[in-house]
Amino acid sequence: TPMDFSDTESSISISSSLPLSRSASTVSMVPSSSLEACSVEINLSLALFSAFMETAGIKTINVNEPIIMAGLMVGAMLPFVFSAMAMKAVGSAASDMIKEVLRQFDEIPGLEEGTAEADYPRCVEIATTAAIKRMIVPGLMAIIVPVVAGFINKTMLGGLLVGVTVSGVLLAIFMANAGGAWDNAKKLIEKKGKKG
Predict the structure, then answer these.
(1) Own/partner pairs for 187-192, CB < 8 Å, 24+ apart?
(2) Distance between CA 76 and CA 180 in Å, rounded?
(3) What does the pLDDT average to over 7-35?
(4) CB environment 27-51: b (16+ within 10 A), e (fewer)
(5) What gap in Å lies between CA 103 and CA 105, rounded to an integer?
(6) pLDDT tens digits, residue range 149-173?
(7) Which residues pair with 21 in a beta bridge?
């Protein structure tokens, strides 16, 4: 049956208010702040959730039902597990990169003095390989968990989606602001000529 998106039209239209950054070859949406980017994602999430509820024939999400509460808890946990796995992958890739840089300084004569060329392709290969290999498990988790929940019970999937949306949005805002604060602190330390 055709789906009616009349209720979600206003939610999706917010993306058209974003300022556009034009260059000679591309046009891309550049959010003016991390909060504006989050509001776009929230509206899109709510629109997709509304479409899911209509398609699945779910009228309400009642958290008194144990199966829905279980889905809600698993969903609230998913963004944190995904983020932890992604951060661990980045840390482990950075460690491999440091080992490679130290190896090159030890084995390539003249590199430390600036008279020899570093093996840049090897460093790029480490970064790209790590990005692909170490993100397989988090990526599969993000795909498999909702599918499994949907096969168990469609209302459990509804609860899972609510949990993911709420905790994911809060985590996104927190990480965007924390990252900006860390970057500003680093720049301030460098401006004062101190090491940090």
Answers:
(1) none
(2) 24
(3) 42
(4) eeeeeeeeeebbbbbbbebebebee
(5) 5
(6) 999 999 999 999 999 989 988 888 8
(7) 28
Greatest Cα pair distance in the chain: 70
CA–CA distances in Å: residue 23 to residues 16, 20, 70, 138? 18, 10, 48, 34
Instruction: Give the phi and the psi of residue 99 in degrees, each rounded to 5.
Output: -60, -40
The CA-based angle 162-46-148, given to 5 degrees, is: 45
Tell me the whole-structure pTM to 2 decimals: 0.69
Cα dihedral: 141, 144, 147, 148 (round 10): -90
Distances from the Cα of 93 to the Cα of 85, 86, 130, 194, angstroms = 12, 11, 6, 27
Structure token digits, residue 78? 């998913």
Per-residue pLDDT at 100 exceeds 50: yes
